[in-house]
Amino acid sequence: MQKSLQVTEPQSPGSDSDGIDQVHDQRIVIPTKFISIADYLEKREHSRFITSQIPTDLSIQVQEITFNVYKYPLVSKCGYIGRLELQPSISNYGYNLKLENFPGGSETFEIILKFCYGLPVDLNPNNIASLRCASEFLEMTEEFEDGNLITKTEAFLTFAVLCSWKDTITILKSCEALSPWAENLQIVRRCCDSLAWKASRENSSTGDAVHEEGWWFDDIAILRIDHFRRIITAIRAKGTTPEIIGKYIMHYAERWLPGMVMEIGARGYGHGENDLQFSICCQKEEGGIAHSNEQKAIIESLISMLPPQQEAVSCKFLLQMLKMAMLYSATPALISELEKRVGMMLEDASVNDLLIPSYKNFDKGKLTNSPEQCTMHDIDVVQRIVEYFLMHEQQQQQQQQKSGKCNISKLLDNYLAEIARDPNLSVTKFQVLAESLPENVRTCHDGLYRAIDTYLKTNRSLSEHDRRRLCKIMNSEKLSLDARIHAAQNDRLPLRTIIQVLLSEQLKMREEMLDKNGNTSEPEGNQSSTKMEIKTMKAELENMKTKMEALQSDYSELQQEYGKLSNKPKNASGWAYGWRKIRNSFQAKLDGNETGDGQQRPNPARKRSFKRRSSIS
Description:
This protein is mainly alpha-helical. Helices cover 59% and strands 4% of the residues. The protein has helices at 34-43, 71-75, 79-82, 105-116, 128-137, 149-163, 165-174, 181-184, 187-206, 216-221, 225-237, 242-256, 272-285, 288-305, 315-327, 332-344, 351-354, 379-398, 405-419, 427-434, 446-458, 464-473, 481-488, 495-520, 527-565, 572-595, 604-616; strands at residues 2-4, 23-24, 27-28, 58-62, 65-69, 87-88, 95-99. The relative contact order is 0.04. InterPro entries: NPH3/RPT2-like, NPH3_dom, SKP1/BTB/POZ_sf.
């Protein structure tokens, strides 16, 4: 495409145009006087081709557009063009010039041409930065003409930056396409400092209303991440509170990271797992490599800008940033820093926040088939977060500050109950995470029992050995009455665990009765006998555990024998007789221990429950 800006010879008085233009095939003929060009082109700004009988002597290409102009008006104001050795044109008698990497492109150069030809130029916040950079590129200084374009644009820029918030935002936004000229000319720095000063003054006027986002939040959020970071740095240097800085960062993340406003944590299991993996892959690759790199740069910058104070941002926001950082493979050091910060605020988290999808191998765009790699959630991250929490709690205890371990035990038990529905979750990972808290932290094991029962429901084919491993985590003595009743009738639990629950229930009932009798009728001198009876009961419980292990061994041998006989003709009567014999033997031992030494016999209902369990086994 070509654009011509040329001067013509005067026309005869008898022409039809009477000294005015003639238009033929978009060619416009204008009067010959140079000063009249301004008057004429002001009315014909929409014209793209302006030609005349006098040929131009300079052809300038900017981007894809070529401008045919006269050399003298440009050389008189542009030092850059004046000192160039212009190459003669092959097609005509003029010269050719190509301006590479011209700030602002062809539109800005067209405005500069108008200025060089003496036409009125409209300076506004949208074009002032590009004109300032272009005038610097062309060296339009006062050395060539008083009131040259550098002086005019610099004056307007200073006036606009100092006076108007909206104009400063517009100018700074336009600087995104003017690197590195806008940086070198300090346009970006001046805009950022001006915005930071205005925002700090506005923050101080609002007082402690930190929960309310100011009107300036949306304006700053539209800026590019490097400009936003410079503004935040300047605002922080002026003494703005961490809560306000955190509000800025959270608002910006909501604007530029669409994944922040959607729940990435999954609730579906089974066949829906591959769907989740596929959706995560699509979310990462939706905008291509350039989009992923841009998102990664934003995430890493926001993480590095976070104030160190805990009250600056919420735990929910930190976990959302952690999910996004893992999705876009942010720097491991930044991910580790986020995990530590979440660990310090873990008591404020919820189960939904901790459901972090497993992003392993997602960056390769492949779905894995290994059960260990196909787990729906990343358990290792939560494990590290819990470890950071325990380290922080240890420091808090040394400083004699309040501890939040009780809340964490409930949170972790609920999290275990949620991930227990994942069929690919291994027993080892479940056990390690459940045992990560110290034993004395859990005052009640109801939540842990619910998580174990959920895991057993999901993995019904679990071996007896693995079921025992899981149930060893739980302390039946710390179960509530409702939980003990449920566990005593739970066919998914190992037989040994059920008996432990029954014995612990009986022991508790015995202790309650002894305490009650001791408080009402026994004198203080007889309390020693009560303690002896409790010790006796505990010894009997240990004896019962030993016998239970022997019975369990016999039961295992019978199972192996039954497996050998399964391929042979079955002797139903012999098998039934052998099983009844062992069951009656076990029941006799149980009844003998529970009724010995004048002790009370167990409840018939509880006895029927055990018989039913034995028959099922």
